[in-house]
Amino acid sequence: MSLFQHSVLNKYLKEANQDKIKSAYEKLLTYFHNPVIQQNIRESKEEQFQEGFLRELFVNVLGYTINPDPDFNLTTEFKNERGAKKADGAILADGAAIGVIELKSTKTKD
């Protein structure tokens, strides 16, 4: 079973700016495919790379704005509304979380 209907996926892919996608992909490859950076990530604890991961992927590649910058739509350590637990990050719209980000160590098994 697909996560998205093929017709919906194809519709949005056709509407997407291909130049922006190519530029973002090149940024992703430049950082995350660097063997030295990959090794440093593997050797880091989850908490050590948390902010760096959010900044490199969500800010530099995907174009989000991270707190404390003005008009931010990405934050770290987002408190769960129904408990004392915190997510590693959250994507925000009008101050409300529309997506949560939970990072795991590269050593975590499924």
Count of alpha and pi helical runs: 4
Shape designation: globular
Any low-confidence stretches, pLDDT <50, length ≥5? Answer: none
Beta-strand level of the residues, as a percent range?
15-25%
Task: Break the fold down into its secondary structure elements and pairings.
Elements: H1 6-15, H2 18-32, H3 35-43, H4 46-61, E1 74-79, E2 86-93, E3 96-101
Antiparallel strand pairs: 1-2, 2-3
Helix pairs in contact: 2-4
Task: Give a brief rundown of this model.
The protein is of the alpha+beta class and 110 residues long. 45% of the residues lie in helices and 18% in strands.
What does this structure look like?
This protein is an alpha+beta fold and 110 residues long. It has helices at residues 6-15, 18-32, 35-43, 46-61; strands at residues 74-79, 86-93, 96-101. The protein has one domain. Helix 2 runs antiparallel to helix 4. The radius of gyration is 16 Å and the shape is globular. The model has no long low-confidence stretch (mean pLDDT 90).
Question: Which key terms come to mind for this protein?
Answer:
3-stranded antiparallel β-sheet; alpha+beta; 110 residues; 45% helix; 4 helices
